[in-house]
Amino acid sequence: MASINDVAKAAGVSKSTVSRIINDSPAISDETRQKVLKVMKELNYVPNSLARGLSNQQAFTVALLINIKDVKSFSNPFFYEVMHGIETVVYSRGLCMITANLENTLKQNEILNWLIYGKRTQGVILPSSIMNNQLVRELKKIRFPFVTIGEPEGIKEPIDWVDINNFQGGMQALEHMISQGYKRIAYIGGEQVKTFNKKRLSGYKAALENNGIEYKPEYVCEGAATKDEGYKLMKQLIKLPQPPDAVICGDNVLSIGAMKAINEAKLNIPKDIGILSFDNMPIADLVEPSLTTVDIDVFEMGVQAANILFKIIDNPEARQQQSMISTCIKMRESTCRE
Amino acid sequence: MASINDVAKAAGVSKSTVSRIINDSPAISDETRQKVLKVMKELNYVPNSLARGLSNQQAFTVALLINIKDVKSFSNPFFYEVMHGIETVVYSRGLCMITANLENTLKQNEILNWLIYGKRTQGVILPSSIMNNQLVRELKKIRFPFVTIGEPEGIKEPIDWVDINNFQGGMQALEHMISQGYKRIAYIGGEQVKTFNKKRLSGYKAALENNGIEYKPEYVCEGAATKDEGYKLMKQLIKLPQPPDAVICGDNVLSIGAMKAINEAKLNIPKDIGILSFDNMPIADLVEPSLTTVDIDVFEMGVQAANILFKIIDNPEARQQQSMISTCIKMRESTCRE
DNA sequence: TTATTTTATGCAACCAGTTTCATAAAATTG
DNA sequence: CAATTTTATGAAACTGGTTGCATAAAATAA
Asked: Which domains does chain A have, with CATH numbers?
C-alpha cells in the first residue's frame, strides 16, 4: 500500500508538500495541489493513522470503558443507546472509539495502562462504578481527560460526569400519579445500594412533601429487580389495612410482578390501582395494559458525555462540568383513569 | 511521559536493549533485564502503542462494524452479546477493539477506508447486511482479513462467516411441538425478506416432511415484528375451520400479540394452544405463562467470529470457514402440557 | 531596475518504537 | 593458551508521517 513517500515520488514533490496537502495547509499552490491529489487518488493513498498519531502526539481515538456487570444488570438496550450517543459525536469529529469491558480477561489496571499510558487514546468515558479517589488522583496527575457515566460516589475532587436526573424522575412519577387523581401512592423501589435508586426515592419523598402528603413508611418497600420480588411486595401492599391506590415501581421487571399481584387480587389497572415504572424499555408497550413509564434519554446522556470529553480534550483548563439529563413521563394505559 | 529513550538513558543501556526486553527477546542477560525492568517500573513506562504499531506494521486492533438499523430491529440484547463475545477473545489476545456504526455521520466508504487503508486495524468483523460482491473483491484484493456476522446473500466467492443455525432452530421448534403432543402446528414468521426468517421457515417445513406431516399453507403466515401483527395473524388462525393447536412465532414480540389473541378467544395456553417463540429475550420469562423459546447463543457467535478472524490474521492462506451455532429449546410453561 | 517582501517548496530533524548487522566480551574447544 | 564459537549489546536504518527553518522564485514596492 502506498505511503507518503510513494505519493511524493510519483508526483515529483517532497513528502513535506504531500503532508501539507493532507492537512489542508494554505501554503500550497493550486497547481501542485491538484497534481498531488490526482496521484493520491491513483495510488489509492490513505495516510497511515498510526504514523500520523505518532507525529501528532494524539491517537485520534477515545475509549469507552464498560463494566459488564452494570450492563447486564440493566438487561435493556440502555447500554447500547449510551454507546450509540457517544459514537455519534466521536465519529462526527473524525476520531474513532475503542470499547473495552473492564471485567474482561485483563485486569482493570492493565487496560487503563494500556489505553492511557500507551498513548492509544486521548480521553476516556467510564462508568462511575469503577471510580475511586486513587484513580481520580492518578488521572488528574497526568491530566488525562475523562468523563464518567453516572454520578460517582465518595469522590472528593470535582470531576466531570453525566447522569440521568433520577431525583427529578422520582418527583415526576409521584406528581403524575397525583395529577391522575391517585391518593395513596406506594413505592416499590430497586435496591437502595445503588445510587440511582436512592435518588429516585428521594425524589418521590420530596414530591410528597411539596404536595403536602404525609409520608407513610408502610407504603415504601425495596426489592431486587425481579418479577417475583415485585409480585411479593405488591401482595403485601394490597394486604395493608388501607391499601394504596397507586404504585411506582423502580424497574420494568418489578412492575410485571406487581401487575401479576394486582390481577390476582381481581383489581383493575388503572381503575383500582395505577401503576408506573421507571425506565422505558420495549416491554412497557407490550404488556396489558401498557405501562406508563419515566423515560430516561440515555442516548442524550452519551452525546453529552462525549461533548464534555471533547471540551476537556480541547481545553484541559476547562472547569469541571456535571450534566443531568431530564426525565419525562411516557403516559400509557396503566395510569389512565379516564 | 517516559519514552524508550528515557528508560534506556536511565538504565545506562541502548534503546535496542530496552526494546528487546519489552518483546521478551531471549538474547538479554538476566542482570540487564532486571536492571531495566526496575527502571521501567520506576518511570512508570508503558510502550507507545502507536510507535509499536508503526514499526510492527500492525495496529494491534480489530474493528467491529455494526449497522444501527440491524441492531434496532432486534431490540434485544442480541447485539451487545455478540460484541461481548468478540471482545472477550480480542482482549485475551492483547489487542483492542474499535467499534463503529456504519450509519453514523460518515459514509460507509469513508469509514472502511479509514480503518482499513489507514492501517488502523488488522481485521474487521462486519454485518452480512452490508456485504456485496464489490466489497468482497476489494477486501480480497488487498488481503484484508474479515468475517461477517450472518451468512451474506448473493456473494459469489467463498468468504468467512458465522451465523446462528436458524434452519436447525426451525426444525427443533416443530419437533418440540410434536414431542409435546401438538398436532396442528402453525407458524407466524417474521418478514421473509430477511434471510434468517427464511431459514427458520425452511427448517419448519423440512421437519414437517421428516415427520410425515402435511404442509398446510393456511397455517403459515408472515408479519412485521410487532405485537399488533402477532395479534392480528393469530386471530385469523383461530378463525380457521380447523384451527391450529400450536403456533411457532418468529419473534418474542409477535408472540406477545399472539398470546393476547389466544387469551381473548378464551383458549388456554398451553392446554388448547401451545406457543413457542424464536429468540430468548428476557421478556420470555416475564409473561404469563412463560414462553418456551428457541435460544440462540449470540455470545458464542461473537467468540467464533473473533476466533476465525484471528485464524485469518495469523494465516492469510487459511481456507475460508463458515460456522453455524446450534440453537436449543428453552422449555417454559407455554408448551408444557403435563 | 533594484530592493524588499511574499509565496511555495524542500531539507532534515523528530515522534517512539523495531530490527539487521557489526562487534566486543565471554565461553567453549582443540 | 590460541582459535573458534556463542552471547550480549549497540549503532544505525527503518516504519510514515509532521514541522521549523532555509531558500529559490515570484510578486510587489521604491
From this structure: 4-47 (1.10.260.40), 61-164+299-325 (3.40.50.2300), 166-296+330-335 (3.40.50.2300)
